[in-house]
Design goal:
7 helices; mainly alpha
Length: about 180
């Protein structure tokens, strides 16, 4: 009788340690996902800020400046449920304005334009990387949350189910190819 109780207590202890380890792993994945989302938000904000700066610099023609400014402003002001669409529209506006290499050269030739063009190129290259890191963290958290043990024992607590950030983040070719 005592031997059965000892083995039962030992089995429950092992199961408890395993569940605790799994809950800790899930918590670390959620923390990683939150950090990746903050980095993505920072890169999107940086891209919008640089686009607004380039649009207001006077280096572009007025129509291109207005298109870029409005798209960047809409991306900065979008609420969370419309942000993916607004950021995609900013990417599309960037590709439309900078589809011609002459536009990039016009920005570079303006006073202070070399630094602005380099900053814009860096911003549009970093957004896809930040989005990829975020979506990888989301994918890992989702994979663990789909396990039965996580659902049955509610190891995720009340954390919302992680959602990927899906947007069109393809940079303009002439900006992305710059070193």
């Amino acid at each position: 009788m005592i031997e059965t109780l000892v083995w039962t207590a030992l089995a429950l202890a092992v199961i408890g340690v395993y569940l605790s380890w799994t809950a800790g792993r899930l918590d670390r994945l959620h923390s990683r996902m939150d950090a990746a989302r903050a980095a993505l938000d920072a890169q999107l904000l940086r891209r919008s800020s640089v686009v607004i700066e380039v649009a207001a610099s006077g280096a572009l023609d007025p129509a291109s400046s207005i298109v870029l400014y409005e798209a960047a402003h809409a991306a900065r002001q979008a609420d969370e449920e419309h942000r993916e669409v607004a950021e995609s529209e900013l990417s599309q506006a960037l590709r439309a304005v900078f589809a011609d290499a002459a536009q990039v050269e016009a920005v570079r030739d303006a006073p202070g334009g070399e630094a602005a063009a380099e900053e814009l190129a860096a911003a549009v290259r970093r957004v896809p990387m930040a989005r990829r890191f975020h979506n990888d963290a989301v994918r890992a958290a989702r994979a663990l949350r789909r396990h039965r043990k996580v659902r049955w024992f509610r190891l995720a607590g009340h954390a919302p189910f992680p959602l990927a950030f899906e947007m069109d983040d393809e940079p303009p070719v002439d900006l992305a190819d710059r070193p």
